[in-house]
Amino acid sequence: MQNNLIVNALAENSNENIQKFSKLVKSSKCEVSECQLRVMGQFLSAIYLFSGPWEAIAKIEDNLNKLENEENITIQKKRTDVEKIKNNYVVYAIDIIGPDETNIIFDIIDLMLTNSLVIKSMSSNSYKHSETTTNMFELHTIVYISLDSSIAGVRSEFTEFCDQFNLDIIMEPLK
């Protein structure tokens, strides 16, 4: 039987910390089902979903406890089940870009949830445009849309919302 463990690690961004974590993972004999690494400021944030037999998951849990105690690394971990999305969904990518508005991401999340979209992944970035120095915002999201929903209706609501805030949107199915 396959067991799963989700791990969220936060450490100072250094090659040594990455190597320590990688060595620990390799020694556990777990499979990495999903992985996301991101540097923010001087910190590295790593999110992993490991899978493997019970013994391998138990070994990585023990090794993570040792690593957290010995190093300046914050680790959260939890065993989890991995659910498959049912067949009655289509997968869409939504990309939004435009002038940055305070907390606009939360308004977008509310719109997604109001339309019963299932958020699979989301990443955003704020920056100053290189030519105009305007504060800009970009968002990339993968969502599941129920086949019971009107995709044209969801697209229309998102387009109207983005027009209100002078944002560009691209919404297309993933193949």
Summary tags:
single chain, 175 residues, alpha+beta, Alpha-Beta Plaits, 2 domains, 8 strands, 32% helix
Description:
This protein has 175 residues and is an alpha+beta fold. The protein has 2 domains: 3-80, Alpha-Beta Plaits (2-Layer Sandwich), CATH 3.30.70.260; 89-173, Alpha-Beta Plaits, CATH 3.30.70.260. It is 32% helix and 45% strand. The protein has helices spanning 15-28, 54-70, 104-114, 151-164; strands at residues 3-12, 31-40, 43-52, 73-80, 89-99, 118-128, 135-146, 168-173. β6 (118-128) and β7 (135-146) form a beta hairpin. It is flat. The mean pLDDT is 91.
CATH superfamily of the largest domain: ACT domain
Distance between the termini: 30 Å
Radius of gyration: 20 Å
Q: Give the CATH class of the largest domain.
A: Alpha Beta
Spans of at least 5 consecutive residues with low confidence: none
Secondary-structure-based class equals alpha+beta
- Count of spatially separate domains: 2
Helix coverage percent of residues?
Answer: 25-40%
Largest sheet: 4 strands, antiparallel
Compose a concise summary of this entry.
By secondary structure, the protein is an alpha+beta fold.
Q: What's the structural blueprint in terms of helices and strands?
A:
Elements: E1 3-12, H1 15-28, E2 31-40, E3 43-52, H2 54-70, E4 73-80, E5 89-99, H3 104-114, E6 118-128, E7 135-146, H4 151-164, E8 168-173
Antiparallel strand pairs: 1-3, 1-4, 2-3, 5-7, 5-8, 6-7
Helix pairs in contact: 1-2
